[in-house]
Design a protein that fits this description.
This protein is α/β, with parallel strands linked by helices. It is built from six helices and seven strands.
Length: about 240
């Protein structure tokens, strides 16, 4: 029987790589994003299905995702925002980061997890960041949302420990996706650096899904070789 994988943030660099990889492995992939045109193009390229929804809208997420039979959830949707100190981050920026990165995560999990529990089957992969637990590795407000993801991943796994539903979190170092352009800094974050590539992340997720059902790769810190643990130092090639 063909398994269904839901991938949020599917039109981003990592999301597309994961979508492409899972389709190639025989999954029915439901790609979730906010941009209808980009989703349509993604579906044409890779043969997936697309759902356009704002994950910060709980009613819309429930209506779009709750009826799906999901065997896998890869939650990668999120925004980075500008590089500002905590005490200088505008309220509208904080609100947007919380709405998408935290509230959106809860909305997606609320729609998907009950079905996995009812069927006693499923794997959840949350795409996080090293900045969630390392000061200075990312903007303060964004880092706070990734710290929240770490807490959600740990608590969700605790809450589901009497079920066979698996919960994994990948804490990423620098990935060459273009998202760093949101930092609004006159800095090239990729030139000269051997970063992780989106296909590397997709390969890791594939490995997580291929492990025996009794094995849960609960926390993975995935770093470029030249970026030290914690991520605050990164040497050029």
């Amino acid at each position: 029987m063909t398994e269904t994988a839901i991938v949020t943030g599917a039109t981003g660099g990592i999301g597309e790589a994961v979508t492409r990889r899972l389709v190639s492995e025989g999954f029915r992939v439901v790609a979730v994003g906010t941009r209808r045109a980009a989703l349509d193009a993604l579906c044409q390229r890779h043969g997936c299905e697309g759902i356009a929804v704002d994950i910060s809208d709980p009613a819309a997420v429930e209506a779009s995702l709750a009826a799906l039979t999901a065997d896998v959830l890869v939650h990668g949707a999120g925004i980075l925002g500008p590089n500002l100190p905590v005490h200088k981050t505008p309220p509208e920026t904080v609100a947007q980061l919380v709405s998408v990165n935290i509230t959106g995560m809860f909305n997606v999990l609320r729609a998907i997890v009950p079905g996995m529990v009812a069927r006693q089957h499923g794997t959840i992969v949350l795409l996080g960041s090293i900045c969630g637990n390392v000061a200075g590795a990312g903007p303060g407000a964004y880092s706070a949302t990734k710290a929240a993801m770490q807490s959600v991943a740990a608590n969700l796994r605790f809450e589901l420990q009497e079920t066979p539903v698996r919960v994994g979190e990948i804490r990423l170092g620098r990935v060459r996706t273009g998202i760093h352009g949101q930092l609004d800094m006159d800095v090239d974050f990729y030139d000269g650096y051997e970063c992780i590539l989106p296909d590397d992340v997709a390969s890791t997720i594939s490995h997580m899904l291929a492990t025996p059902p009794s094995v849960d790769l609960s926390t993975i810190e995935m770093m470029p070789t030249r970026q030290v643990i914690g991520g605050t130092r990164f040497s050029k090639t």
